[in-house]
């Protein structure tokens, strides 16, 4: 008997080493309503795609750190920068402004 493991269909998993531009492009794939903003639910779906434990909790924490006006959306460059910092610190993603390799 063979055991087969498969990754669910959907957006490809990002490389853990990426630029800010690549991070934004990856996150944009989860913008289900195409409004250019990321909600907590959309962030949760992005984290689930990484097979992150407690994605719902990490999405809540990410929103608490990034959503400066508490409207439930990541919508501007300043909030996105905070979300990048959260991903680096708490999700152990290596996100740089740019890289040469």
From TrEMBL:
Taxonomy, superkingdom: Eukaryota
CDD domains: EFh (cd00051)
GO MF, one annotated term: calcium ion binding
Keywords of the record: Calcium, Repeat
Gene3D superfamilies the UniProt entry points to: EF-hand
Pfam families for the chain: EF-hand_6
Record domain EF-hand: where: 18-53
Protein name: EF-hand domain-containing protein
Ranges annotated as spanning the membrane: none
């Amino acid at each position: 008997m063979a055991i087969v493991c498969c990754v669910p269909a959907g957006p490809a998993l990002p490389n853990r080493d990426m630029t800010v531009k690549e991070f934004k492009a990856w996150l944009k794939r989860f913008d289900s309503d195409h409004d250019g903003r990321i909600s907590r639910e959309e962030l949760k779906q992005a984290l689930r795609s990484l097979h992150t434990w407690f994605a719902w909790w990490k999405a809540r924490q990410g929103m608490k750190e990034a959503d400066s006006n508490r409207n439930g959306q990541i919508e501007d460059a300043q909030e996105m920068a905070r979300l990048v910092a959260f991903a680096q610190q708490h999700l152990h993603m290596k996100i740089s402004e740019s890289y040469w390799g």
